[in-house]
Amino acid sequence: MKQPINIAILASGAGSNANAVAHYFKGNEAIKIKLIVCNVKDAGVFKVADAHQIKSVLLPNHEIDSKLLSLLRIHQIDFVVLAGFLRKIPGDVTAAYTNKMVNIHPALLPAYGGKGMYGARVHQAVIESQEKESGITIHLVNDHYDEGGILFQAKCTIEPNETPESLAAKIHVLEHRHFAPIIEQHILKTF
Ligand code: GRF
């Protein structure tokens, strides 16, 4: 039988997207979530890893540049999923995983992206600019924050009384619905 495509998920926070992706691929013989890497001690994503019986590794910020690539190699990772990973990916990793690494961004890129644009800050900026809609972007990762080729976008409406919290909740629904199927589609096209 063909070897499965091994995925590593990189996350820094609660891990609700990691959870949705792990859930989607459960029991899939062709695509496996092999590893979860997190740079924040005690982040919620470690509990997600345990719940799905996925190996997790804490990689502190000062070790990302020197150790991330070898960690991915040791675990024979074919594809990398960034699910709320808040550090820049080192150049050796982006080079090794060209077209094989995706990120999810909680806005409609190219607007509201770039360095420092994450979490509530994104939703705050979108609401302050009186946008009528926001959404999610799933894109390939290159050396520039949020600038890789866009694979998929989905939109939601912003209501007049929208808060960063209520918008974040809507965005999470879109993320959890679309991230894993788009990852699967892209993997099936790529390998
Ligand atoms: C998501 O909103 C994602 O778009 C962003 O970081 C957030 C991570 O949330 N990149 P969670 O840890 O998956 O709950």
The helix fraction, in percent, is 25-40%
- What is the CATH fold-level name? Rossmann fold
**What is the terminal separation in angstroms?**
15 Å
CATH class: Alpha Beta
Number of strands: 7
Provide the list of bound ligands, each named once: 5-O-phosphono-beta-D-ribofuranosylamine
pLDDT under 50 segments (min length 5)? none
Kindly name the structural category.
Answer: alpha/beta
CATH architecture: 3-Layer(aba) Sandwich
Number of helices: 6
* CATH H-level superfamily: Formyl transferase, N-terminal domain
Rounded mean pLDDT score: 96
Number of domains: 1
Strand arrangement across the biggest beta sheet: 3-2-1-4-5-6-7
What are the defining features of this structure?
alpha/beta; 7-stranded mixed β-sheet; 38% helix; Rossmann fold; single chain; binds 5-O-phosphono-beta-D-ribofuranosylamine; 191 residues
Question: Can you offer a commentary on this structure?
Answer:
By secondary structure, the protein is α/β, with parallel strands linked by helices. The protein has one domain: Formyl transferase, N-terminal domain (Rossmann fold, 3-Layer(aba) Sandwich), CATH 3.40.50. Helices cover 38% and strands 23% of the residues. It is built from six helices and seven strands, in the order E-H-E-H-E-H-E-H-E-H-E-E-H. A seven-stranded mixed β-sheet has the order 3-2-1-4-5-6-7, covered by helices on one side. Helix 2 links the parallel strand 2 and strand 3 (55-58). The protein is globular and about 50 Å long. Bound molecules: 5-O-phosphono-beta-D-ribofuranosylamine.
